Automatic annotation (TrEMBL):
Organism (species): Sinanodonta woodiana
Binding site for Zn(2+): 44, 48, 54
InterPro entries: ADAMTS_CR_2, MetalloPept_cat_dom_sf, Peptidase_M12B
PROSITE patterns attached to this UniProt entry: ADAM_MEPRO
PANTHER family referenced in this protein's UniProt entry, alphabetically: ADAM A DISINTEGRIN AND METALLOPROTEASE DOMAIN, ADAM METALLOPROTEASE
Highest taxon, organism lineage: Eukaryota
Keywords: Disulfide bond, Glycoprotein, Hydrolase, Metal-binding, Metalloprotease, Protease, Zinc
Listed GO biological process terms: proteolysis
Name the UniProt record assigns to this protein: Peptidase M12B domain-containing protein
MF GO annotations: metal ion binding; metallopeptidase activity
Length: 199
């Protein structure tokens, strides 16, 4: 089954609404052809499973979808003129309130004896995606084997990483978010679309 239709980001994932404690419904599925949106899409579907509505709908009517938080009902398109916003990496206040309200009533997330092993988890945090995938590799993952990064690894790549996308004899520019941990200067890396010092 294909979940993702190009330029129709709404269909890139499926999840049961509020199904986190139901054995048959606590799974979310995503299909990602847009490497740079994988984390946001997974977070979006998991949020549905935890009971969050789309911004502007249901319990989240007070939050505007056009503000571009994780729970926007449609994908946001960015270009080099789009002003920076942290919103694509965070949940709106409506989503946060929904999590607080709904998780208070879910006994399955409060299981005594459930243990989070920080040592086991920490091995996955030793490298960021940007440590593993160069800007060129990120472009190829998003747009195919002939795509490549355009520019230099400076601070502006964090918000908008520019890629070429070969198309019938012409080269078009496409834009993606740089992966977390992409180098953006000496001893700096991209976190949530911003270039910050490594510490």
């Amino acid at each position: 089954m294909q979940l993702y239709i190009y330029y129709y980001m709404l269909l890139s994932g499926l999840s049961h609404m509020n199904g986190v404690c139901d054995t048959g419904k606590r799974t979310s599925v995503i299909e990602s052809h847009m490497y740079s949106r994988t984390v946001q899409t997974a977070a979006h579907e998991l949020a549905h499973n935890l009971g969050a509505d789309h911004d502007g709908e249901g319990d989240a009517k007070a939050c505007r979808p056009e503000d571009g938080f994780i729970m926007t009902p449609h994908g946001q398109l960015y270009d080099e003129f789009t002003p920076y916003s942290r919103n694509p990496w965070i949940f709106s206040r409506c989503s946060v309130e929904s999590f607080k309200k709904k998780l208070r009533t879910k006994s399955c997330v409060k299981i005594a004896g459930a243990v989070f092993n920080i040592l086991e988890w920490s091995k996955f945090l030793q490298k960021q995606a940007g440590d593993v995938f160069t800007p060129d590799k990120q472009c190829r993952l998003a747009y195919g084997p002939n795509s490549q990064f355009v520019g230099t690894p400076t601070e502006d790549i964090c918000h908008i990483l520019k890629c070429t996308k070969p198309a019938t004899g012409q080269r078009r520019r496409k834009f993606i978010f740089a992966a977390r941990g992409t180098m953006c200067g000496e001893n700096k890396w991209c976190i949530e679309g911003r270039c910050i010092p490594k510490s």
